[in-house]
């Protein structure tokens, strides 16, 4: 759980593993690698999340808002 990643890592885009818990990591890897549909859903959700939050158009708009707030 790292600040900054919380915006990108969601329950729909990834599986959170407790730090140092290698057993859970192995179990979840086996689970995901054995489920092609789940991998596709998670990949599609991750792509949508990034495009919605960090597309060039979105980022330019956010920078414009920031600069206008400083005027």
Distinctive features:
71 residues; mainly alpha; 3 helices; 0% strand; elongated
Give Rg in angstroms: 17 Å
Counted by DSSP, the helix tally is 3
The share of residues in extended strands comes to under 5%
Structural class, please?
mainly alpha
Low-confidence runs: none
Biggest sheet, open or closed, and with what strands and sense?
Answer: none
Distance between the termini: 36 Å
**Overall average pLDDT:** 90
Order of helices and strands: HHH
**Helix fraction?**
55-70%
Shape: elongated
Total strands: the figure is 0
Outline the fold blueprint.
Elements: H1 22-33, H2 36-54, H3 56-70
Give a brief description.
The protein has helices at residues 22-33, 36-54, 56-70. It is 65% helix and 0% strand. The protein has 3 helices and no strands.
Structural overview:
- With 71 residues, the protein is mainly α.
- 65% of the residues lie in helices and 0% in strands.
- It has helices at 22-33, 36-54, 56-70.
- The radius of gyration is 17 Å and the shape is elongated.
- The protein starts with 21 loop residues before the first helix and ends with a helix.
